[in-house]
Design goal:
Elements (H helix, E strand, L loop, with lengths): L2 H7 L10 E5 L5 H8 L2 H5 L9 H10 L5 E7 L2 E10 L8 E8 L8 H15 L5 E7 L3 H9 L3 E12 L2 E11 L2
Parallel strand pairs: 4-5
Antiparallel strand pairs: 1-2, 2-3, 3-4, 5-7, 6-7
Helix pairs in contact: 2-4
């Protein structure tokens, strides 16, 4: 039984969280983001590999280009989720950004992902005038797919053997949301 199946067999999810603050990530968050990225459930749903170091995350946060956005979900000083909105580097794709996100294993299914996605899409729509936001999601990540569809993303295709995870190749959907 894989991690995704184990999570489906757990008891019903708890109520939505109150008090979550979405804010910009900073280099001071490096240790907390590292701990988040190294959680097995978080990592299972992303392209991250095990054993990220705080130094790697700090370097990334310090060197991130100013045109992208990196946000965290903060609950009483604990980072419980993060999202990156990365603008396309090609001048002919300036209307486009890519999103990557994840939520702490213990807080999944409680509205954290929705809050992060809403904040990122607000920046995309109302501050950066982006017309297209893209993402990839593993085809077995039903909770994430549902969240993305609720936020207006549609599946544009299936990427066969997209990534190697948990000892085997897995497929992913490519999804996008167009602001028309």
């Amino acid at each position: 039984m894989n991690l995704q199946e184990e999570q489906k067999e757990k008891s019903p999810r708890p109520e939505r969280l109150d008090g979550v603050v979405i804010r910009a990530a900073s280099p001071q968050d490096a240790e907390a983001i590292t701990a988040l990225h190294n959680l097995p459930g978080y990592r299972y749903g992303t392209l991250r590999t095990p054993f990220h170091s705080s130094a790697d995350i700090r370097t990334y946060l310090e060197s991130s280009p100013g045109d992208g956005r990196r946000l965290v979900a903060d609950l009483g000083g604990q980072v419980i989720g993060d999202i990156g909105l990365t603008l396309a580097g090609n001048p002919r794709r300036r209307h486009t950004a890519t999103i990557g996100m994840g939520v702490h294993d213990a807080f999944a299914g409680r509205g954290v992902g929705s809050a992060l996605m809403t904040a990122a899409l607000d920046i995309a729509d109302n501050w950066l005038n982006l017309r297209r936001v893209e993402l990839t999601v593993f085809t077995d990540n039903d909770a994430a797919i549902s969240l993305y569809e609720k936020q207006g993303f549609v599946t544009e295709g299936c990427l066969k053997e997209f990534a190697f995870r948990d000892g085997r190749y897995v497929d992913a959907y490519t999804m996008a949301r167009l602001k028309i």
